[in-house]
Automatic annotation (TrEMBL):
Its main location: membrane. One of its GO terms (molecular function) is porin activity. Homotrimer. It is a multi-pass membrane protein. Residues 5-326 form the Porin domain. InterPro entries: Gram-neg_bact_OMP, Gram_neg_porin_domain, Porin_dom_sf, Porin_Gram-ve, Porin_Neis. One of its GO terms (cellular component) is pore complex. Keywords: Cell outer membrane, Ion transport, Membrane, Porin, Signal, Transmembrane, Transmembrane beta strand, Transport. It comes from Duganella callida. Transmembrane segments: none annotated. This is Porin. GO terms for biological process: monoatomic ion transmembrane transport.
């Protein structure tokens, strides 16, 4: 009786939505040291997930909000992150129509949101994902222990600020991360300028001394413009410092001398989405310019097609090829996997709910 009464009371006060995505298909990878690989996999275009989001009206334009989201593998039903339930997002906060939004917990960085929502015609998924060459690994995508403030939208302009505590005993800076974003979205134009800074220091633990390293710094401009007959995309990123451009795969091609993550690089993307009937053609070209003495550059060409069977269900095909130079080791992955070679083909189906 008490439990039932509490549930009814909570339902009356809050609006909770259950949502998700199920994405599965076939991936064929070529060119890696492991040989040719063909497999059924999950999360090709977007990671399969289930989530809960809610809001409660507190009055005077103020609301309490929360979001909990976990990823899973549709091919075998397992969680995509061991011993972590809500690995994708887990936050709570307050939202005001006049003052903006403040949230606390595990959240996306402004850098990754700009990559996936503005810069990439593939939406950070499929074989052509921006993540194959742009710096999206690890904490560049999402970070724990984060406070994020987002301003209200004024004449199309808005801003975001993220600060994540490193939470290492004995140090207030080791492992901390912060990010900033300036956004503009009005009419056919969508643009974001973002900055991400990750402290790579580790505090002393017992007899293990502290390790002091350079920070990883990423600055990116992302723009898209909808001409109706075609939606054009452009992105430019400058990446400097330790972990500013981590390799998605350590040594996928089995080189005698393993590829080295660049400490100073630039990334450029040009791409397009072309509506064709009930579907969309996606295409992009990405260039990684390693400015260090190693000069491990790479180029990627990608082409894909998403056909919408309904507003919630679509089928897709995608192909991408990377050309590595001077011992570079970049691989063609997808939204959920780093990939194993320099070429990959995808075919699958996705359903959102």
């Amino acid at each position: 009786m008490i439990i039932g009464g509490f549930a009814a009371q909570a339902q009356a006060q809050s609006n909770v939505t259950i949502y998700g995505l199920v994405d599965a298909g076939i991936v064929s990878e070529r060119g890696g040291a492991a040989g040719n690989i063909t497999k059924v996999t999950s999360g090709i275009g977007g990671q399969s997930r289930i989530g809960f989001r809610g809001t409660e009206d507190l009055g005077n334009g103020l609301s309490a909000i929360f979001q909990l989201e976990t990823g899973f593998k549709a091919d075998d039903g397992t969680l995509d992150s061991t011993n972590t339930l809500f690995n994708r997002q887990a936050f709570v906060g307050l939202k005001s129509k006049d003052a903006g939004q403040l949230t606390i917990g595990r959240q996306y960085t402004p850098l990754y949101l700009a990559q996936s929502q503005v810069a990439d015609p593939f939406g950070a998924g499929y074989a052509g994902t921006i993540k194959n060459l742009f710096p999206s690994a690890g904490a560049n995508t999402r970070v724990s222990n984060a406070l994020v403030y987002s301003t209200p939208v004024i004449e199309g302009f808005s801003g975001d600020a993220l600060y994540a505590l490193g939470e290492q005993a004995g140090s207030t800076t080791a492992g901390r991360q912060f990010g900033l974003g300036l956004n503009y979205a009005q009419g056919p134009l969508n643009a974001r300028l973002v900055y991400n800074n990750k402290n790579n220091d580790t505090a002393a633990v017992g007899t293990t001394p502290a390790k002091i390293q350079d920070t990883g710094r990423n600055t990116m401009l992302a723009v898209n413009y909808d001409f109706q007959v075609v939606k054009a995309y452009f992105a430019y990123s400058a990446d400097k410092g330790v972990n500013s451009a981590q390799l998605p795969s350590a040594n996928a091609f089995g080189y005698t001398v393993a590829p080295k993550p660049s400490l100073d690089s630039n990334d450029v993307l040009v791409g397009a989405q072309i509506p064709v009937g009930a579907g969309t053609i996606m295409a992009s070209y990405i260039r990684k310019n390693d400015k260090t003495v190693n000069n491990q550059d790479a180029d990627q060409w990608a082409l894909g097609y998403l056909y919408n069977l309904s507003k919630r269900t679509g089928v897709y095909l995608a192909y991408a090829k990377i050309k590595n130079k001077n011992g570079a080791g970049y691989t063609v992955g997808n939204n959920n996997e780093a990939g194993s070679g320099d070429k990959a083909f995808n075919a699958g189906i996705r359903h959102s709910f």
